[in-house]
Amino acid sequence: MKKLRSRLFFHFSIQFSFISLLMIVVVFTAFFIGLYYISNEDREADYYQAQLEELAIEVGDPYDYKEMGNDISDVLPENVWLQIIDEGGNVIESENVPEDLKESYNSFDMIQMKEREQLGESAVKYSLEKPLYGNGNEYLFVLGYKDSGTILMNELVENVKINGSIPEADKSEVEEKLNRLEGKLVIYNEAGNLVQQFGNQEQVEEQPLGMIEKDTSPDHFSEKQYTFLDRDSGNSWILYTPNEQNQDMPLTLYRNITFVFVGLAGIILLVTVFISFWNSFRYGSPLFIFSNWLNRMGNGNYEEVLTEQEKKKVYRKNGKLKRRYKLYKEVFQAFDDMAAKLDASRKEREQLEKSREEWVAGISHDLRTPLTTMEGYGRLLGNREYDWSKQELQEIGDTITDKSNYMVDLIEDFTLSFRLKNDANRLTFSLVNINEFMKQILEKFQKDVAFKDYQIVYKPIHPDKKIEVNERLFERMIDNLVYNAWKHNPPEIAIKIEAAELGEGKALEIRIIDNGIGMDEETQKHLFTRYYRGTNTEERNEGTGLGMSIALQIAKLHQGTISVQSEEDLGTTVTVVLPCDTE
Predict the structure, then answer these.
(1) Do residues 223 and 240 lie in contact, with contact meaning Cβ atoms separated by under 8 Å?
(2) Beta strands of 219-321 (E only): which ranges?
(3) What is the pairing mode between strands 494-502 and 561-567?
(4) Which DSSP letter does residue 90 get?
């Protein structure tokens, strides 16, 4: 039952572990979902800046990223380019860059890029990153993209501006460029009064904070805003263009992580729910079987431990427990053992009663024939009208003596057979040397004048072996086998008894071999059946019909076996196999 307790603890621990793991994953999932939406908000505010930050997180240390077999082109969106610059100003990685860009930058280039937010013909976003893992160096990630508004503003400021405004000679050109972009340019003085306006002539009235919001979150609006302050004149330039770059950019890093955790949470949730339902059937179904089991046992039905339907439910075709019932393996085994013991106890009582009835019936049946003979002779002797001769009286006396001896042998055999069936546990066993013990048994045959015409030879085993036997019963078994060979063969037959090892000394084989008349297959089949020779007492040699049955019972009590091989006119071999002491 300790194993059962351990398995229950293990199963419930797994279930609670899954629930704990589910809670942890749900917390992480909520965290990444929140992070995703925050990042998505940043992305909606400034598309290219958010894209750059995600690329920087994805790439990390560019050297390690490349050594791992990754390619920046796989994570870089279309219509943009990327340069990664090390601390010395050298470009160490680039992708999709225009041909006119440098491969190395100095401090002045960095200042120009910062002030103009432009490299070549591309607007840029930049981010200085120091990866958590790698060589500890800092890298500047520069993301370039097409932005006509930035390019136009820089061009106007650098090439057209005079005294903080657009000269009269350049107004038409500026107007044309703005119309192509569908944009407009307004210039205010220090007092906030409109000085010049180009492009769309619609008046623009901005809220004070709206100007700041458009600068920090440009992609929240349908138009972009570019500003320039001319410090000499104090004029402020504001350029408006349609926000063509306001597009739906998937944040793949955060999105993928979120999807992984959401999927993992869903899987763990399903597994946890499945385990809960599974355990309800796993722990509940056996309880119903145990309840039915106890009811049947309470009604005395010990043999039907499980119904056929329950057996199909509990066991596989190979006889092993199904997986969901293995948890209660010890319980099933305990029930089986208890039912087997109760059933064995009941059968033992029934067998004892049946044995008593058989013993009485057998005694009654087998004694009737000799008693009938003796009764007949008694009536004849009591007839006064007949004068018996001395020879006739001698014959009648011999017959009555034979019948009396037969009845005594019969009663003794019945008693022994009954004891072998019911008192086996009370028998005592001792170790004997087989050669020495067999010689003691066969010595009485050699000294008995009744068997002087019979030949018997024992071939000993070398070296001598020890076996554990009940000496009295073992001798009776050998006696019965030898008597049976003599009894059903002519006097001139020879009997040879051999002992040999079997199974590397784990068993002992004793063979009783005769060269007599043998027996047919039908006789061999029923040789060990009680009363097979019948109870005919007209011939004394027929015996009680119990000798071979008793020999078999004795062999079984010694955990052994008896077998017979015989052919008519060629003789018979009876083989006894007994376990051998290996010490």
Answers:
(1) yes
(2) 223-229, 236-242
(3) unpaired
(4) B
Contact between 83 and 144 (Cβ < 8 Å): yes
Specify the 3-state DSSP secondary structure of 147.
coil
Tens digits of per-residue pLDDT, 25-79?
777 777 766 666 665 555 556 778 888 888 888 888 888 888 888 888 888 888 8
- pLDDT of 297 over the 60 cut: yes
Cα distances from 202 to residues 55, 196, 258, 558, in angstroms, run 40, 13, 45, 120
What is the pLDDT at residue 141? Answer: 93
Residue whose C-alpha is closest to residue 497's, from 524, 516, 478: 478
Alpha carbons within 13 angstroms on the beta-carbon side of residue 6 total 5
Query: For residue 393, is pLDDT > 60?
Result: yes
Integer-rounded Cα radius of gyration of the chain:
56
For 517, residues 6+ apart whose C-beta sits below 8 A from its C-beta are: 488, 489, 490, 568, 569
The model's pLDDT over 398-438, given as tens digits with 9 standing for 90+, comes to: 888 877 877 787 777 777 766 776 666 677 889 999 999 99
**Spatial contact of 533 and 542, defined as CB atoms under 8 Å apart:** yes
Q: How far apart are CA 139 and CA 82, in angstroms?
A: 12
The answer to whether residue 512 scores a pLDDT higher than 90 is: yes
pLDDT at 534: 36
Helical packing angle, 252-298 and 329-381, nearest 10°: 20
Q: Give the pLDDT of residue 582.
A: 52
Instruction: Tell me the mean pLDDT in the region 217-243.
Output: 83
Residue among 390, 177, 26 at smallest CA distance from 398:
390
Measured at the CA of 410, the angle between CA 407 and CA 414, to 5 degrees, comes to: 140
Asked whether the bond before 463 is cis by omega within 30 degrees of 0, the reply is yes
* CB 235, CB 17: distance < 8 Å: no
Q: What is the dihedral of CA 522, 523, 528, 529, to 10 degrees?
A: 70
What is the C-alpha to C-alpha distance for residues 69 and 283, in angstroms, rounded to an integer? Answer: 51
CA distance 52 to 345: 86
Q: In what order do the strands lie in the sheet with 118-119?
A: 91-95, 80-85, 139-145, 122-129, 118-119
Please report, for the chain, the start and end positions of each structural domain, with discontinuous segments joined by +: 1-141+249-275, 150-242, 427-579
Q: What is the pLDDT of residues 519-577, one digit of tens each?
A: 988 888 878 876 555 333 334 444 556 778 888 888 888 889 999 999 988 899 999 99
- Hey, what are 170's tokens? 């350049």
The answer to whether the beta carbons of residues 218 and 45 sit under 8 Å apart is yes
The number of angstroms, rounded, from the C-alpha of 185 to the middle of its chain's C-alpha atoms is: 76
Average pLDDT of the residues in 121-127 = 89
Q: How many residues does the chain have?
A: 583
The tens digit of pLDDT for each residue in 130-182 reads: 887 767 789 999 999 888 888 888 888 887 778 888 888 888 888 888 888 88
| Superfamily (CATH) of domain 427-579 | Histidine kinase-like ATPase, C-terminal domain (3.30.565.10)
The pair of three-digit structure tokens given for residue 454, joined into one six-digit string? 């019979």
Where helices occur in 171-251 by DSSP H, the ranges are 171-181, 208-216
* CA–CA separation, 129 and 323 (whole Å): 55
